[in-house]
């Protein structure tokens, strides 16, 4: 059964059937990653360009690894050191790369909507690897995959997303995906970092972490995005840690076995204490591994739509 769309631009509006198909397909690819030889042939002969206009460690390497595991040919593009610095437009850059007979483009960009624009001007499949504060669909998918792997289901679980919701593309993709899959979704953080429109999406809003924690199955902790000036929205990092930092003491007080997630990179001892990040309760590194399987599934499924 194919996906309904030729591109993966976001999880907003994606059907439960398509989400389920990606998650189920990723199970087979996750198994491939445990084999001694971690390579399969489905994308042999396909060429994929990774266009990264913004910094990344996990997403860029994970896509590249997923592509190589599927036997695709991989082109790496980073804005730094490219002709973007000579004033070349996004449109010209993308069309020149496509002229080299590229089948799929994975793009990260600081501007919300940049992958949507790209999907209208090139024929290749486009995968959004994070666009501004808008969406990060493969992160949302790998988070859901990790929850399902750890807890056996998504439907009916209470997933709380903590912290800098306002600047977070990860929060948006998680909210859309988790709501479609039947989870109870809440957000928690300072009022200044939670956009008002969230309640319209059916998301519960909390401002006191200790109030929501005793009801939570999964806590997805977001990074304070200092590079997007998030530090202006609360008095100090120390104050933030006192109010919202995920600490061992706070989790013990909640009296519940909460699964701790974080998309990375982590600000240790700001939004999460180092011991919690490295504890058995944390699935942060499983998220990273599952990201490769999810990206393999997305690329494999989209390739049949070209
Ligand atoms: N989670 C995530 O998107 O990390 P990177 O910015 O390192 O890709």
Please give a structural write-up.
With 306 residues, this protein is an alpha/beta fold. It contains eleven helices and nine strands. The strands form two sheets. A five-stranded parallel β-sheet has the order 7-6-5-8-9. Strands 2-1-3-4 form a four-stranded parallel β-sheet, sandwiched between helices. Helix 2 packs across helix 11 (284-303), helix 5 crosses helix 6 and helix 5 packs across helix 11 (284-303). The longest helix has 20 residues, at 284-303. The chain is globular. The model has no long low-confidence stretch (mean pLDDT 95). The structure holds phosphoric acid mono(formamide)ester. Phosphoric acid mono(formamide)ester (CP) is lined by residues 56-59, 130, 136, 139, 263-265.
Describe the protein's topology.
Elements: H1 16-32, E1 47-52, H2 58-69, E2 73-78, H3 90-99, E3 104-109, H4 114-121, E4 125-131, H5 137-151, E5 158-162, H6 169-180, E6 184-188, E7 204-206, H7 209-212, E8 218-221, H8 237-244, H9 248-254, E9 259-261, H10 274-277, H11 284-303
Helix pairs in contact: 1-5, 1-11, 2-11, 5-6, 5-11
Phosphoric acid mono(formamide)ester binds at residues 56-59, 130, 136, 139, 263-265.
TL;DR of this structure?
With 306 residues, the protein is an alpha/beta fold. The protein is built from 11 helices and 9 strands.
């Amino acid at each position: 059964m194919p996906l309904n769309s030729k591109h993966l631009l976001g999880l907003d509006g994606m059907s439960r059937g398509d989400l389920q198909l990606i998650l189920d397909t990723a199970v087979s690819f996750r198994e491939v990653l445990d084999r001694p030889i971690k390579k399969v042939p489905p994308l042999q002969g396909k060429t994929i360009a990774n266009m990264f206009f913004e910094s990344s460690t996990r997403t860029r390497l994970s896509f590249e690894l997923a592509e190589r595991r599927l036997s695709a040919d991989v082109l790496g593009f980073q804005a730094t050191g490219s002709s973007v610095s000579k004033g070349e437009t996004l449109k010209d850059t993308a069309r020149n790369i496509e002229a080299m007979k590229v089948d799929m483009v994975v793009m990260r960009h600081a501007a919300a909507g940049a992958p949507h624009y790209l999907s209208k001007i090139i024929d290749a499949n486009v995968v959004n690897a994070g666009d501004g504060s808008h969406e990060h669909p493969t992160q949302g998918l790998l988070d859901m995959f990790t929850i399902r792997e750890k807890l056996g289901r998504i439907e009916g679980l209470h997933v709380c997303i903590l912290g800098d919701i306002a600047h977070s593309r990860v929060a948006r993709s998680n909210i859309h995906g988790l709501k479609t899959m039947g989870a109870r979704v809440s957000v928690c953080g300072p009022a200044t970092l939670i956009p008002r429109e969230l309640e319209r999406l059916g998301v519960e809003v909390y401002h006191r972490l200790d109030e929501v924690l005793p009801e939570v199955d999964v806590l997805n902790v977001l990074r304070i995005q200092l590079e997007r000036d998030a530090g202006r929205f609360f008095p100090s990092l120390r104050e933030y840690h006192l109010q919202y930092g995920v600490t061992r003491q706070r989790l013990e007080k909640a009296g519940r076995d909460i699964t701790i997630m974080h998309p990375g990179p982590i600000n240790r001892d700001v939004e999460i204490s180092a011991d919690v990040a490295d504890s058995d309760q944390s699935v942060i590194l499983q998220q990273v591994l599952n990201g490769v399987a999810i990206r393999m599934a997305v690329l494999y499924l989209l390739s049949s739509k070209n």
